[in-house]
Task: inverse folding
């Protein structure tokens, strides 16, 4: 809703006329949403694992390092490029040139 003050009187937009001096205040209301979250968690730590028996020997397995394989040399790529796209481009250029020359010939 817009309200204007003209000579101390409140008027709406339909009460305004051309050439009037007015003062206006724009009031904008924005909806504000405030959301609060609060969580409280309780719990307990799991019991520690039982310690290993002291009299039993411990088995430690040691793996041999894997041999690093040298990368195989890449085979030579086949030659796939050709002059066919260039020939097609030259053909299109020739057709466009002939159309342009014919157009200029009709005008002149």
Result:
């Amino acid at each position: 809703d817009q309200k204007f003050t003209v000579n101390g009187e409140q008027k709406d937009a339909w009460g305004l006329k051309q050439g009037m001096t007015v003062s206006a205040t724009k009031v904008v209301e924005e909806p504000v949403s405030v959301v609060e979250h609060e969580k409280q968690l309780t719990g307990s730590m799991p019991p520690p694992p039982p310690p290993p028996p002291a009299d039993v020997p411990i088995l430690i397995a040691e793996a041999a390092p894997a041999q690093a394989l040298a990368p195989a040399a890449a085979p030579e790529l086949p030659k796939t490029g050709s002059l066919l796209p260039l020939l097609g481009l030259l053909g299109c250029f020739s057709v466009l040139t002939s159309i342009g020359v014919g157009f200029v010939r009709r005008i002149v």
The first strand starts at residue 4 and ends at 6.
